[in-house]
Amino acid sequence: MTLRVTQYGEPVLRKKGKNITRFDARLVELANDMFKSMQVHDGIGLAAQQIGKPIRLCLVDMRVAQRQEVFNYLYDGKKPPLELLMPMALVNPEVDFLGKKETNREEGCLSFPEIYGEIVRPETIRVKFQDLQGVGHTLECDGLLARVIQHEVDHLNGILFIDRMDRKARKKIESPLKKLKKSTLSTFNKPKENGL
Questions:
Q1: Which CATH number fits the domain that encloses residue 99?
Q2: What is the span of the domain harbouring residue 18?
Q3: What b/e readout covers 2-32, taking b as 16+ CB neighbours within 10 angstroms?
Q4: In a domain, 27, yes or no
Q5: Would you please indicate which residues are annotated as catalytic (active-site) residues?
Q6: For residues 27 and 30, what is the distance between their CA atoms, to the nearest angstrom?
Q7: Can you tell me the distance from the alpha carbon of 171 to that of 7, in angstroms, rounded to the nearest whole number?
Q8: What was the pLDDT predicted at 98?
């Protein structure tokens, strides 16, 4: 099932996700639906808040991006083919930054259609997480993969990519941002027919 992607202005995007403690068929089904939704919208990452659920679950799929991007990764100390890892569900992820190198790059977000901005983020990270069966893993990575994971884990903490922009970058997108929020709020607050 394809899920609706929440838009800027919806309160759930600012909610910190609750840790997941039940690893069952419902969680697998939710992750599969999130993956389908991510594919429909040509995304490479999606957090549970973006489908209206404030829990600590996000998905990443770098298979298409790998054709244009170079990034390194070690999954539990090994480097299996990316096709075996992706799409990757990260449950209850915790990110540590490795080294001091940072990079500046344009980011977008499925919850902010056609809005982009420059963001500075650490280049290399380590993320500890559980898979959909509750098994713990460690992923060390850099480049776009590290950036996407940071972006999605921010969502799980109620942080949006616009919060990471410097004042100059944020000013460039202020007008479309206001339009998007106004549109979202007018739809979100629209009275339901027949009082339902």
A1: 3.90.45.10
A2: 11-188
A3: ebebbbbbbebbebebeebeeeeeebeebbe
A4: yes
A5: 152
A6: 5
A7: 20
A8: 97
